What we know:
By secondary structure, the protein is an all-beta fold. It has one domain. 0% of the residues lie in helices and 51% in strands. The protein is built from no helices and 18 strands. The strands form 4 sheets. Strands 1, 7, 8, 9, 10 and 11 form a 6-stranded antiparallel sheet that branches. Strand 10 and strand 11 form a beta hairpin.
Amino acid sequence: MQSYLxxxxxxxxxxxxxLNRLTSNTYKVLSMAYPCGPGHDKVLTFEAxxxxxxxxxxxxxxxxxxxxxxxxxxxxxxGDTSDCYNDGHDITSRYVIVCFDLxxxxxxxxxxxxxxxxxxxxxxxxxxxxEDDDDFYSEDAELRVWVLEDVEKHEWSKYAYTWTDGKFxxxxxxxxxxxxxxxxxxxxxxxxxxxxxxxxLLQY
Length: 204
């Protein structure tokens, strides 16, 4: 079971929602303080018509940096620690994948090398990014797709693909989603009525 989560930006807040599979009627909303700060994070539980807010402690201060994905009762989103004070934490990467278990309400974190997009891929979390973020005009840019095989052991399957389409530079396309069969979908970033609109599928 998976669902895409829409970040709801309110005053000093960003929220993610997901389904707790232990009971089919239980939904939870994770509300993170923005910008990051201690003592402001909360969980809202919807169950049998009741709504309950509770404060929750996250050990690693971070700002939510992406929309989220919910897979099998775990919320995933990209966090940015660069503007947050984390005394006593060994921060090895600016970006982390934040994993929030809806059942236990515990946070875990997985380091990633750079900013990336999060997608649902065949029942697992995957991240996608361009190898050279600065070379916007490259016709042969390399696309990286990492699939998280084991959350606890931080084990990834890593794939690399070369963008070889001659019509567009990679800066002219953006990822828009994933098909049910696992194809990653890209489309043009800009569209005018004077030009055709292209959609690209990455099959692997």
